[in-house]
Design goal:
The complex is a heterodimer of chains A (about 325) and B (about 475). Chain A is of the alpha/beta class and about 325 residues long. Helix content of chain A is about 35%, strand content about 20%. In chain A, helix 7 links the parallel strand 6 and strand 7. The longest helix of chain A is centred in the first third of the chain and has 15 residues, at about 5-20. Chain A is globular and about 60 Å long. Chain A starts with a strand and ends with a helix. The relative contact order of chain A is 0.12. With about 475 residues, chain B is of the alpha+beta class. Chain B has three domains: about 1-135, OB fold (Dihydrolipoamide Acetyltransferase, E2P); about 145-225, no CATH class; about 270-485, Chloramphenicol Acetyltransferase (2-Layer Sandwich). Chain B contains eleven helices and 22 strands. Chain B has helices at about 85-90, 95-110, 165-170, 185-195, 215-220, 270-280, 295-310, 315-330, 375-390, 395-400, 465-480; strands spanning about 5, 15-20, 30, 35-40, 45-50, 55-60, 65-70, 70-75, 130-135, 180, 180-185, 260-265, 285-295, 335-340, 345, 350-355, 355-360, 360-365, 365, 405-410, 425-440, 445-460. Chain B has a six-stranded mixed β-sheet with strand order 13-22-21-20-16-19. In chain B, strands 7-2-4-5-9 form a five-stranded antiparallel β-sheet, with no helix packed on it. The longest helix of chain B has 16 residues, at about 95-110. The radius of gyration of chain B is 28 Å and the shape is elongated. Chain B starts with a strand and ends in a 7-residue tail after the last helix. The chains are: A alpha/beta (about 325), B alpha+beta (about 475).
């Protein structure tokens, strides 16, 4: 085990998979010569050459479409979006081509493609560059959506995503690229898609958190432990397919749920999880599920307002105390 | 505004209800939640509560009358209000069908199976019509489980982060679990209550808006606020026919002063079939009889010693029999019981009725808690009760409510006989004369004091083997009265 950053873990995953399968290649803005806007592709151009690590023009729809075409003829492209805010330009290729090709070709064309890059808020990049878009992609049958919260999960899940024969939306988080964690050096290490992880076991309430919210949920759990409240933290890791069973089992144990998410609440992933809990564990609930989401407004530029727009440890603690009827 | 009071759905299978008794008369003031009438359903007698405030303007159904679900049974309004429109609606019967439809739809919408406890939720639109709510009467059985009272409200889903209206603020002090006349219960709390047999009406919710939550049920369970109900119901049985209990419930206080505390165990499907079939064979109480011979030498010795050692003592053989029967009953609680249609009532104490012949008849004064009294105490009490029985000075509570009876015709020279059970007791012991008889002991013929007893059993409660085991214990104790000290 080595302690490495999320950035390094993602880099390792791509390097190992590019060694393992010569059909894997990386395409995106500044991924090659500049080594990635967030240095995730550091060293890859030097190692694999410009046939497999390719700088694209600033044209998301174009290079996403190029990736889909490459996947149709048997390559395994990794398409990096500088941030997922820019993927909005490419959604026609993602939603209309990648997600539907297998179905509409009657199974003739698999699309083994990974669209990856940072999703969610960063630091003062304002409304257009701070969006958490997981619910957009998770909405469509044909796409898988992955959101790692630790370096180990990032590496294991990205390797599985690259090996997967379906299009995978792989959502990283800019604020988390420097987060460190233990990661195995075993090249065979992968984490299957669609399997949630119980990040912490507890009995009084469940916090379902993903991506940036996982470390905050764990801190809140520590805080609550001092107050005598035992918290289970569940990280779905894959949004689609969602590991509903792990969440439901936890709810059956704790009877109370807080969902923490960076995205907006309305029609969000938290709403889906909440509905699943209601459908499958209604009789086990002791309190209404509480969603703690990003505020229902464009992200402000001002630093103080930006902070207020996102869930934080104090608000997660308060939400748990609310569902556990402690206040 | 004047509101109709309709015949409420008080049990899942109820289609009509009989108005047993009005608790209010026309002109009486009523407040929300006040008992209005007692209603006999197909299961039990339930109390209907007023869900509107005002004056009982008109009572439309007479006591004893049976009306379909949804029929208007009364009108509550202001004293001077014009209720003619409602009256003509009620008399034409047109409202009944619509009310019934509302009730049915609310049941249908809630589905079945695990969610039967939701079956009583009345949709908002129908709330003004369904102005009564079921509440089981104290001491009545409620085999249909908590389902009838559990009324998880749609309000349970609202976001507690946002302050609600005045009604909620008013109940935020935890005073009331009822918002708009409906209990607010979290789903798991409702489920736990149904499974454990907790009456939600007796609880005060500690959640926001008085919501009853899991910890309230846990507290109720640990404090023993349970109704007789089965924790684990057999899947093939409906809730109304809750199966035999797996864990004994706490004893509850009886309505009659001085009577034994009891706990009600729901009558299982099998038990109910046994009851029905046996009754159809031999009358309301299907008797059967068990006879045994008891060697009374040691009991007679004990009696002699007691009377010799204490000049005050005038212990009779019958006093010893009472004591021994009480001790045996405590060991065999299924005999110390009575058949109550939907439940078998098990008594905590052995209250022994002692048949006393009086002029023109007989009466059975009761020795309360004979299992806890000494032989001397029992002896004094019986003598005193018998005296007053002969002079007809017993109070009703002194000759009713026994849990088991003994009839002794030994002093009249009867060898053995069968006695008729005094309902609702489950058994009576007929005691014959004690007399020396040749018996074979260790291969030798010898003379022993022999007494024959015959127990009549209510087969709905006591089966052959159950009765035989009781008699075995009774015989062993009476043949070896020293065991009373063990």
């Amino acid at each position: 085990m080595a302690v490495i950053t999320m950035r390094e873990a993602l880099n390792q995953a791509m390097r190992e998979e590019m060694h393992r399968d010569e059909n894997v290649f990386l395409l995106g803005e500044e991924v090659a010569a500049y080594q990635g806007a967030y240095k995730v592709s550091k060293g890859l151009l030097e190692e694999f050459g410009d046939q497999r690590v390719i700088d694209s023009p600033i044209t998301e729809l174009g290079f996403a479409g190029l990736g889909v075409g490459a996947a149709m003829v048997g390559l395994r492209p990794i398409i990096e979006f500088m941030t997922f805010n820019f993927s909005i330009l490419a959604t026609d290729q993602i939603v209309n081509s990648a997600a539907k090709m297998l179905y509409m070709s009657g199974g003739q064309f698999k699309i083994p493609i990974v669209f990856r890059g940072p999703n969610g808020s960063a630091y003062q990049v304002s409304s257009q560059h701070s969006q958490a878009l997981e619910s957009w992609f998770a909405h469509f049958p044909g796409l898988k959506v992955v959101m790692p919260s630790t370096p180990a999960d990032a590496k294991g899940l990205l390797k599985s995503a690259i090996r997967d024969d379906d299009p995978v939306i792989f959502l990283e988080q800019e604020r988390m690229y420097g987060n460190k964690g233990e990661v195995t050096e075993d090249e065979n290490f992968t984490i299957p898609l669609g399997v949630a992880d119980v990040k912490r076991e507890g009995t009084d309430a469940t916090i379902v958190a993903r991506s940036l919210m996982v470390p905050l949920a764990l801190k809140a759990a520590e805080e609550l432990e001092k107050q005598g409240v035992s918290i289970e933290v569940i990280d779905p890791r894959t949004i689609r397919p969602l590991d509903t069973a792990t969440i439901i089992n936890s709810v059956k144990k704790t009877n109370r749920v807080v969902i923490a998410e960076e995205s907006h609440a309305f029609c969000g992933v938290g709403a889906e999880i909440s509905a699943q809990i209601m459908e499958h564990a209604f009789d086990y609930l002791d309190a209404p599920v509480v969603r703690l989401s990003g505020v229902d407004a464009p992200m402000p530029y001002a630093k103080n307002l930006e902070k207020l727009a996102l869930p934080d440890v104090a608000r997660i603690v308060a939400a748990v105390r609310q569902v556990a009827y402690l206040d | 505004m004047a509101t109709q009071v309709v015949m409420p759905k008080l049990s899942p299978t109820m289609e009509e209800g009989q108005l047993a008794r009005w608790l209010k008369k026309e002109g009486d003031k009523v407040t929300v939640g006040e008992p209005l009438a007692e209603i006999d359903t197909d299961k039990a007698t339930m109390e209907a509560q007023a869900l509107a405030e005002g004056v009982v303007r008109k009572i439309l159904v007479k006591e004893g009358e049976t009306v379909p679900l949804g029929a208007i049974i009364a009108i509550i309004g202001q004293p001077d209000e014009d209720i003619s429109a409602l009256l003509s609606q009620a008399q034409s019967g047109e409202a009944t069908a619509e009310n019934k439809k509302n009730i049915d739809e609310s049941v249908k919408a809630d589905g079945d199976g695990a969610q039967t406890e939701l079956a009583q939720v009345v949709p908002d639109g129908a709330r003004t019509r369904a102005t009564t709510q079921g509440q089981p009467l104290k001491g009545e059985t409620e085999g249909t489980s908590a389902g009838q009272e559990d009324k998880p409200s749609a309000k349970a889903t609202e976001q507690p982060t946002q302050p609600r209206g005045d009604s909620v603020k008013a109940s935020d002090n935890g005073q009331s679990s009822q918002a708009g006349g409906r209990l607010v219960v979290s789903p798991i709390a409702a489920r736990m209550a149904a499974e454990a047999g907790v009456n939600l009406q007796t609880l005060t919710g500690s959640g926001p808006g008085g919501r009853i939550v899991k910890r309230d049920i846990e507290a109720a369970i640990s404090s023993g606020k349970l109704r007789a109900n089965s924790p684990q119901e057999q899947p093939q049985e409906s809730q109304a026919q809750a199966s035999a209990q797996t864990a004994p419930q706490a004893y509850v206080a009886p309505a009659v002063e001085g009577a034994s505390p009891y706990r009600d165990v729901p009558v299982s499907t099998m038990r109910s079939t046994i009851a029905r079939r046996l009754v159809s064979s031999i009358g309301p109480v299907p008797h059967f009889f068990l006879t045994t011979e008891i060697e009374m030498d040691r009991a007679a010795d004990l009696r002699r010693q007691l009377n010799e050692l204490d000049a005050e003592m005038k212990v009779s053989i019958n006093d010893l029999i009472i004591k021994v029967a009480a001790a045996a009953l405590v060991q065999h609680p299924s005999v110390n019981a009575s058949f109550q249609d939907k439940v078998i009532r098990h008594y905590e104490r052995a209250d022994i009725g002692v048949a006393v012949a009086i002029e023109d008849g007989l009466i059975t004064p009761v020795v309360r808690g004979a299992n806890t009294k000494s032989i001397g105490q029992i002896s004094r009490e019986v003598r005193e009760l018998a005296e007053r029985a002969r002079s007809r000075k017993l109070k009703p509570e002194e000759y009713t409510g026994a849990t088991f009876s003994i009839s002794n015709l030994g002093m009249l020279g009867i060898d053995e006989f069968t006695a008729v059970i005094n309902p609702p007791e489950a058994a009576i012991l007929a005691v014959g004369a004690m007399q020396p008889k040749p018996v074979v002991r260790d291969g030798e013929i010898t003379v022993r004091q022999i007494m024959r007893v015959t127990m009549s059993c209510d087969h709905r409660v006591v089966d052959g083997a159950t009765g035989a085991k009781f008699l075995q214990t009774f015989k062993k104790l009476l043949e070896n009265p020293v065991l009373l000290l063990a």
